[in-house]
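haha ok so turns out i had the wrong file open the whole time. this is the CORRECT one, sorry everyone. sequence first:
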Amino acid sequence: MAITSERLRQTFSEGGAQEIYQEIKAGGDFLGFARQYAFDDDYRVARSALWGLTKARSEELSELQVILNELIDQAMQTKNSSVRRLTMNIIERLKMDEDDLRIEFLDFCLEHMVSMEEFPGIQTLCMKLAFRMCRFYPELTDELMRTLEAMETSYYSPAVKNVRNKILSGKL
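then structure:
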């Protein structure tokens, strides 16, 4: 069955996401698929497209490196938490060099990693991405560590505490 917006709008299962991935893989055009569907205004289409893309191997996802900035924009601007989490999952798996540092994205990650209104999956991805961005600048790394140390951990999920502790102990 061909991948269409209508089909993506109705994909709600892990199995469906795996099928989408297998079809993208067979077509061999991860970038074209992402450009066509991952930024769709219908969050259900974008969510399903991104979910399928998260099943890809890192080598396959590397095709998306050229749209890193568009993915970052989407993560910061979307109102849909599933689209945000899946987009950030993909960003986290892409290469991020010093030249890729965007201060507004770092600020976004620093804010959302400690936000009690944010979902734990997004908080952990924000922590990991903030850590990756800060590693290029010792003063930013120091600020991140102070922020992590100041977190009142009793308010956070085990996943958030785990990532926090790994960063603080140097094991991430």
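The CA atoms of residues 134 and 140 lie 5 Å apart.
again sry for the mixup
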